[in-house]
Design brief:
heterodimer; A: about 240 residues; Rossmann fold; six-stranded mixed β-sheet; four-stranded antiparallel β-sheet; about 25% strand; B: MetI-like fold
Chain lengths: ~240, ~220
């Protein structure tokens, strides 16, 4: 379970997150929507400690992410993250990309790591591309590679930071399908997304962020058809 | 009648061996200096990148001095003034010290460029997988950044190898010094400098060919 309490984040004097309170249960799929600059992505970075926070707390399975004594690297193996830019390691093949972290972070043997990698790549539909370098993969394939790379650490939570925003429109579908597959398998997911169809169909809850505040949260049906907040209605009217 | 004593004699096959041996000395002092300098340079580049105030204030000006002052001046100054502080180094050791520092000063900025080339998003992705700072450096930044600045590094290495000719002013008999000795004896500067040039080319060309083939392989 992820518990976020009164989370404040500043970039210099810019107040990016203004007191976020949010719980995400095991097995839940939460979509986070909102305009650019509303703090959605920053929230994900704060959850796995890639950004320090200035006030409040984030707990993952009871462990305080930002506390001094926390082994953040160990905690991050629980929190898979997929970025807008897929960031595949260009000097490694698809298989090596996925096998690297299990090997050096979890100390798996070379063969074990490669088995895990092959399994996860097959899982995301890249079973044919094991020995291909990222430069000969499409954007959608590279993003699925990034998903496999995160899954290879056997995370309990997956954080998606606009995983489809940088893709050509015709490649968005394959990545969303992969995310759907994970959701169906019961993965706990927080998806920052601009894909309203995905948010509506796949999520258990949808949170709307507006200028650093979580304006509204609820089941998709509620957010998309009977939003309480003026800002939410305005945003949804514009994106549809 | 006694033959007159001759100061000059023509170029012969033994001289070619003499030059070849000198070329090996050039190769040796270059390999040693470039290796040591690269290691120091990479560490300095990392310090510059991390940009801790102390590093920027102390290291950057020092590196600038070694990059900006002509190598020949550094060599002569170091060789003649090191004994004053009790460092009695022979020409070879002095040459290695200065060439290494000179290489380090050049490599530092190449290395910093390499780290910058990797970019924060890539490093965040690595860290998000649970890699430590050092694992990220070792397995992500070093190979990716290293490939990005490899051509620049080869340029530095080839430059330092040619600049090692300047160690001749300290009396170390490498390729250029050997050529000068032979020229004095044979009075055939054109021939001997051509041969010396060919030796330098023979040392450099395989390196640039090899690096080009490496780049090609990485580019796939």
């Amino acid at each position: 379970m992820i518990e976020i309490r009164d989370l404040h984040k500043y970039f210099g004097s810019l107040h990016v997150l203004k007191g976020i309170d949010l719980d995400v249960q095991k097995g839940e799929v939460l979509s986070v929507i909102g305009a650019s600059g509303s703090g959605k992505s920053t929230l994900l970075y704060c959850i796995n400690g890639l950004e320090p926070i200035q006030q409040g707390s984030v707990r993952v399975d009871g462990i305080d992410v930002h506390a001094k004594g926390t082994d953040i690297n160990k905690l991050r193996t629980k929190l898979g993250m997929v970025f807008q830019q897929w960031n595949s390691f260009p000097h490694l093949t698809a298989l090596e990309n996925v096998a690297l972290a299990p090997k050096i972070v979890k100390g798996k043997s070379r063969d074990e790591a490669r088995d895990i990698a092959a399994k996860q790549l097959t899982h995301v539909g890249l079973g044919e591309k094991l020995n291909v370098f990222p430069s000969s993969l499409s954007g959608g394939q590279q993003q699925r590679l990034a998903i496999a790379r995160a899954l290879a650490m056997e995370p309990e939570y997956m954080l998606f930071d606009e995983a489809t925003s940088a893709l050509d429109p015709e490649l968005v579908g394959e990545v969303l399908d992969t995310m759907r597959l994970l959701a169906e398998e019961g993965m706990t997911m927080i998806c920052v997304t601009h894909e309203m169809g995905f948010a509506r169909d796949v999520s258990d809850r949808v949170a709307f962020f507006h200028q650093g505040v979580m304006e509204e949260i609820g089941p998709p049906a509620q957010i998309f058809s009977e939003a309480q907040s003026e800002h939410t209605r305005k945003f949804l009217a514009n994106v549809r | 009648m006694q033959p007159t004593v001759s100061f000059f004699s023509g170029f012969n096959i033994n001289d070619l061996w003499f030059l070849g041996e000198a070329a090996l000395r050039t190769l040796w002092i270059s390999v040693l200096s470039i290796s040591i300098g690269t290691v120091i340079g990479v560490v300095c580049g990392w310090l510059l990148y991390e940009g801790k105030l102390a590093a920027t204030l102390t290291l950057a000006p020092v590196l600038d001095i070694f990059r900006s002052v002509p190598l020949i001046i550094q060599l002569v100054l170091f060789y003649n003034f090191a004994p004053i502080v009790g460092l009695n180094l022979d020409p070879f050791a002095s040459g290695v010290v200065i060439l290494s520092i000179y290489t380090a000063a050049l490599v530092a900025n190449v290395a910093r460029g390499g780290i910058e080339a990797v970019g924060d998003p890539m490093r965040r992705a690595a860290r998000s997988l649970g890699m430590t700072y050092w694992q990220d450096l070792r397995y992500v930044v070093f190979p990716i950044g290293g490939r990005a600045v490899f051509p620049a590094w080869v340029g530095v290495a080839l430059g330092v190898m040619k600049d090692s000719a300047l160690v001749s002013v300290l009396g170390y008999v490498e390729l250029l010094k050997a050529s000068q000795i032979l020229i004095t004896r044979t009075q055939e500067p054109f021939l001997i400098l051509t041969i010396a040039g060919a030796f330098y080319f023979a040392l450099s060309y395989p390196i640039s060919r090899y690096s080009a083939s490496l780049e090609k392989r990485w580019a796939q």
